[in-house]
Write a structure and sequence with these properties.
Layout lengths: L5 H8 L3 H9 L6 H14 L16 E7 L5 H15 L3 E7 L4 H14 L3 E5 L5 H8 L4 E4 L8 E3 L3 H14 L5 E5 L6 H16 L9 E3 L4 H14 L5 E4 L2 H13 L9 E6 L12 E4 L2 H16 L12 E3 L9 E2 L1 E2 L4
Parallel strand pairs: 1-2, 1-3, 3-4, 4-5, 6-7, 6-8, 8-9, 9-10
Antiparallel strand pairs: 10-11, 12-13
Helix pairs in contact: 1-2, 1-3, 4-11, 7-8, 9-10
Length: about 350
């Protein structure tokens, strides 16, 4: 009896030889309906690829690991939205685990994924250094999304320093000088540190002295930002604007300002970062720095498939955009510059 070939699989599945090759070698995404046809043909013919293990090749799942710090983030959810159609149109299944911003958890998560047999790992915001990750995964392909590149792995991110400058310069251009900055001190939030750097650079360029009392830990969370703003108000520290390092903390700040009878943007202007879905529906609508989050997610899956195939990745540049909405306005002067606090 003739030994079935890849050409036989191609004929039975009614797909091209190149499609069969892409599927067998995992070199590029293949449409789901074609995967089903190829798998059925392999099963019917009893075809075994030359580079296959003797047993179980047709049933073994192809896995890509994705480690995230939390699900409780519009940044994470928007990036996952970009990943979903790409993973659905590939031969891979995405294994997602959270580390809760904890280095020990990150180690445990990565070790579990490696034992599961992942073929590549995507790290979405990392606390571990790239060297620490490599010590766990060895030669496994790794792609880092967001954070700061350390030169070991391919990296997808935006220019957070430029984003911090863009947000702060918008407020300075409206006449604001007492500008609060809500950052995140959580381990791994290197992007927040860079946005803070952009904030400070913009103040310096404008001849505005940096005031450490105006830099507060908003934790990238609405509740943390709300508490920080309430403390600032109760201390009577003067300010007329807020630059929050993400949209969640910006919305938390606005909530607290309004609860204290402080009008936004009439008395205090607020800028966020991300352009999350809530930014355009919250009232007032939030001025923010738009990140191409879905595009980042889509590129991450595409390039991980390329990396698993042993090919060189090609990462496009990602642009930021200031989206001006209703939460910012020119500073109000009444004699001397005044503050609602």
């Amino acid at each position: 009896m003739k030994t079935p070939t890849a050409k036989d699989v191609s004929d039975v599945a009614n797909v091209s030889m190149s499609t069969v090759s892409r599927y067998l070698n995992r070199t590029a995404p293949v449409a789901k309906k074609k995967i089903i046809a190829i798998e059925q043909a392999i099963s019917d013919l009893g075809f075994i690829p030359l580079n296959a293990k003797p047993q179980g090749i047709r049933t073994k799942e192809k896995l890509i690991g994705l480690m995230i710090p939390t699900f409780d983030s519009s940044f994470i959810s928007s990036t996952l939205d970009g990943m979903d159609p790409e993973i659905q149109n590939s031969v891979y299944r995405l294994v997602i685990e959270t580390s809760h911003w904890d280095k020990t958890s990150e180690i445990n998560v990565i070790q579990r994924m490696v034992k599961q047999g992942i073929e590549g790992l995507i790290v979405l915001v990392n606390s571990l250094s790239e060297a620490e990750i490599k010590a766990i995964v060895g030669e496994l392909p790794v792609l880092v999304v967001a954070g700061v590149s350390e030169g070991i792995y391919s990296h997808i991110s935006i220019d957070n320093i430029a984003g911090g400058r863009l947000a702060t310069e918008h407020l300075i251009g409206l006449g604001h000088r007492n500008i609060v900055h809500l950052y995140s001190s959580e381990l791994g939030n290197k992007d927040s540190l860079q946005r803070s750097q952009g904030y400070r650079e913009s103040l310096e360029r404008a001849g505005i002295n940096y005031n450490e009392k105006l830099s507060l830990d908003g934790g990238y969370r609405a509740t943390c930002a709300s508490r920080a703003m309430q403390s600032l108000i109760e201390q009577g520290i003067e300010f007329t604007a807020v630059f929050a390092a993400n949209d969640l903390s910006a919305l938390g700040a606005i909530k607290t300002l309004l609860q204290n009878g402080i009008k936004v943007p009439d008395q205090v202007s607020v800028v966020g970062f991300d352009d999350s879905p809530a930014a355009s529906v919250f009232l007032p609508k939030l001025t923010t720095i738009k990140q191409p989050l879905q595009k980042m997610g889509s590129i991450a899956i595409q390039q991980m498939v390329v990396m698993i195939a042993g090919k060189t990745v090609s990462l496009p540049s990602l642009e930021l955009e200031l989206i001006v909405r209703g939460s910012t306005d020119k500073v109000v002067f009444i004699g001397e510059q005044s503050s609602p606090c």
